[in-house]
Design brief:
Layout (H helix, E strand, L loop, with lengths): L7 H11 L8 E2 L2 H7 L2 E6 L9 H10 L3 H6 L1 E4 L3 H13 L3 E6 L4 H9 L3 E5 L6 H12 L2 E2 L6 H18 L4 E5 L4 H13 L4 E7 L4 H8 L24 H8 L2 E5 L1 H14 L10 H8 L1 H4 L3 E6 L6 H9 L3
Parallel strand pairs: 2-10, 3-4, 3-6, 4-5, 7-8, 7-10, 8-9
Antiparallel strand pairs: 1-2
Bound molecules: pyridoxal-5'-phosphate (PLP).
Length: 323
């Protein structure tokens, strides 16, 4: 069956599939932030999702749609971390064998968690080897179904359920800030925004060092870059996808970038003021909202906090790296 571009109906169907399996994560507020912005800011806390990031939504949705043959042969995924854990956990819950291809320099906590969920881990060098080729190879050899981290309609539809819940629980927004890697979360969020909060301006936010999404958005072509060096390890993607890019081009207001020091400031704020652990990549959205807060005065602002998986030693080092 050829894959079709996902629509909001697919997000709604995904919401039914994940119900009872994924957490309906809380929407947090902060008086300090509201005062700082002169706005109402709503944080959708996917750092509190199962396995610690929104990626459980897309993975569980995709694996739930496997037929009997696919379930028996198993799933293969390649990921710098959170997608790996998401596929491993979803596979375990659904009784499907999982093989996960991970970069050898991925945070140890993510590699350990993936193994802990029962996934078979295959390591590769992210600067010299092509993970997509390794994945294709395994899927051909053993009949495994490849579930990509972002560029798949079922993954996009699953990721869109986080923003769907935000609009349902907190009402329509004037602006929504979404962390951006390959664009699964952003494109899914944009589908939900279009359906549930039509006037909402949706912004994707990526690391300054890897602004391929911004370049692609502005040029109208998918731009490929080398693996960027940034502390936002979940957004070290090299390009947007065939499914994510058209939706982003059509539905998103702009793509913004933030620096690593701005991510550390946001991470510090989350920990010190809101008492939540957010991984560097999960700080992209709030860091960008903060940088443009003057324009957001008087508005209703949504911030998707995408994940909280960070090695505790690394978390402390990052917090201490700025005075
Ligand atoms: C994967 C990931 C992202 C980026 O999501 P995409 O769908 O690839 O754009 C952002 N934040 C966290 C925590 C992630 O794990």
């Amino acid at each position: 069956m050829p894959l079709h571009a996902p629509e909001y109906a697919d997000v709604a169907a995904a919401a039914d599939r994940i119900r009872g399996h994924a957490h309906r994560t809380p929407v947090m507020r902060s008086r300090t932030v509201d005062a700082e912005f002169g706005a109402e800011v709503f944080f959708k806390c996917e750092n509190l999702q199962r396995m610690g990031a929104f990626k459980f939504r897309g993975a569980f949705n995709a694996l739930s749609k496997f037929d009997a043959r696919q379930r028996e042969a198993g799933v293969v995924a390649f990921s710098s971390g959170n997608h790996a854990q998401a596929v491993a956990l979803s596979a375990r819950l659904l009784g499907i064998p999982a093989t996960i291809i991970m970069p050898q320099d991925a945070p140890q906590v993510k590699i350990d968690a993936t193994r802990g969920y029962g996934g078979e881990v295959v390591l590769y060098d992210r600067y010299t080897e092509d993970r997509e080729a390794i994945g294709r190879d395994l899927s051909q050899k053993y009949g495994l179904t490849l579930v990509p981290p972002y560029d798949h309609p079922d993954v996009i539809a699953g990721q869109g359920t986080a923003a769907k819940e935000l609009f349902e629980d907190a009402g329509p927004m004037d602006a929504l800030f979404v962390c951006l890697g390959g664009g699964g979360l952003l494109s899914g969020s944009a589908l939900s925004a279009r359906a549930l909060s039509p006037g909402c301006q949706v912004y994707g936010v990526e690391p300054e060092a890897g602004n391929d999404g911004q370049q692609s958005f502005r040029s109208g072509q998918i731009v490929h870059i080398d693996t960027p060096k940034t502390i936002a390890d979940g957004a070290q993607t090299q390009h947007l996808g065939q499914f994510t890019f058209p939706i982003i081009r059509r539905e998103v207001a702009d793509i913004l970038t933030v620096s690593d020091p701005e991510l550390i400031d946001a991470m510090n704020f989350y920990a010190a003021r809101m008492k939540i652990v957010v991984e560097p990549t999960g700080c992209l959205s709030f860091a960008a909202a903060r940088a443009m807060r003057a324009e957001l005065a008087g508005k209703r602002v949504g911030v998707i906090v995408s994940g909280g998986n960070v090695d505790m030693r690394r978390f402390c080092e990052l917090l201490l790296s700025k005075g």
